[in-house]
């Protein structure tokens, strides 16, 4: 049998009510939400489960997503489902750190809360992101590099889907050039900043001090960095990688390809939505992908993995 990997989605997958059935059915999940509220001074239950205008604002989205994913993760672990490697898309990388035991949940909640604030404040207006469909990433890289404005690749999601990020005008102009070069479509994304672009470097710089004060420990099993798409086994590398991650490209396709090379045959997506499952199947149709978004999904996963 091949390896099992946990993968975690990032910002953009959030919705009202995410994780609520875990909160209602799992004692440890409820404790996770309460712990996150205590650590951040935010009522995370209210933020995630009730109608409000904050859930889609970066500084609140990030702590809401990570809390929900960790609540799901800890519940899943109690059912005996374990992984041998982990990764997360952008913000999801922080949950991957929790999964492999590289830091405490309490410290992670505090760190993610600060990351959200720093990213919200780094470039509050004038940024944009766009999904480019059906064009080779080499062509996208070239056009972005030749453009005079600040625009570049934010995410290598899967074959045929790359996200660009940068100044609003530069992203708009580059999108037109990419369509002329053969892209099927360029779809503007509803985001509150130019994530994973050099415009966010100041957020990484602010985060550096918090990262250096964190008590990271040796991971119980490896995780893969968004920045390098390589396995991280030394906890001393973590602060620098997370500092760079804020403004660097997310190499998700390369991450999944590396996991498959390392022997992963089963991917378990933990968190809201099924976006990552879709990406994985576009990268490799032969691996198995299981999504755990609802409490009832745990039984399905158990039957598939623990038979």
Report on the structure:
By secondary structure, the chain is an alpha/beta fold. The chain has helices spanning 20-25, 27-40, 44-49, 58-78, 92-99, 105-122, 137-146, 168-180, 201-212, 238-245, 252-261, 275-283, 297-305, and strands at 3-8, 85-88, 127-133, 151-158, 161-167, 185-188, 223-224, 231-232, 264-270, 288-292. The longest helix is centred in the N-terminal third of the chain and has 21 residues, at 58-78. Helices cover 47% and strands 17% of the residues. The protein starts with a strand and ends with a helix. The mean pLDDT is 96. Helix 2 (27-40) runs antiparallel to helix 4 and helix 4 packs antiparallel against helix 6 (105-122). It is built from 13 helices and ten strands. The protein is globular and about 55 Å long. Strand 9, helix 12 and strand 10 (288-292) form a beta-alpha-beta unit. It folds into two domains: 3-122 and 198-305, Malonyl-Coenzyme A Acyl Carrier Protein, domain 2 (3-Layer(aba) Sandwich), CATH 3.40.366.10; 127-188, 2-Layer Sandwich (Alpha-Beta Plaits), CATH 3.30.70.250. The strands form three sheets. A four-stranded parallel β-sheet has the order 2-1-9-10, sandwiched between helices. The protein has a four-stranded antiparallel β-sheet with strand order 4-5-3-6.
């Amino acid at each position: 049998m091949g390896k099992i990997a946990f993968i975690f989605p990032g910002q953009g997958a959030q919705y009202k009510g995410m994780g609520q059935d875990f909160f209602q059915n799992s004692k440890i999940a409820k404790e996770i939400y309460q712990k996150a509220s205590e650590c951040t001074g935010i009522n995370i239950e209210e933020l995630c489960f009730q109608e409000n205008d904050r859930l889609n604002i970066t500084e609140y989205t990030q702590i809401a997503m990570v809390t929900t994913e960790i609540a799901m993760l800890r519940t899943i672990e109690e059912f005996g489902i374990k992984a041998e490697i982990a990764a997360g898309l952008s913000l999801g990388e922080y949950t991957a750190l929790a999964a492999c035991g590289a830091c405490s949940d309490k410290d992670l909640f505090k760190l993610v809360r600060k990351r959200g604030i720093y990213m919200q404040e780094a470039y509050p207006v004038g940024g944009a992101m766009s999904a480019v469909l059906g064009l080779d990433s080499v062509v996208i890289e070239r056009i972005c590099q030749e453009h005079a404005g600040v625009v570049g690749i934010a995410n290598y999601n899967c074959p045929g889907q790359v996200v660009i990020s940068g100044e609003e005008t530069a992203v708009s102009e580059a999108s037109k050039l990419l369509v002329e070069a053969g892209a099927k479509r360029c779809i503007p994304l509803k985001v509150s900043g130019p994530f994973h672009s050099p415009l966010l470097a100041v957020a990484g710089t602010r985060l550096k001090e918090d990262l250096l004060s964190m008590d990271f420990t040796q991971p119980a099993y490896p995780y893969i960095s968004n920045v390098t798409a390589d396995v991280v086994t030394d906890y001393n590398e973590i602060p620098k990688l997370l500092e760079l991650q804020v403004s660097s490209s997310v190499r998700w396709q390369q991450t999944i390809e590396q996991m498959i090379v390392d022997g992963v045959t089963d991917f378990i997506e933990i968190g809201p939505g099924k976006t990552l499952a879709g990406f994985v199947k576009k990268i490799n149709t032969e691996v198995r992908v299981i999504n755990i978004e609802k409490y009832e999904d745990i039984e399905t996963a158990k039957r598939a993995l623990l038979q």
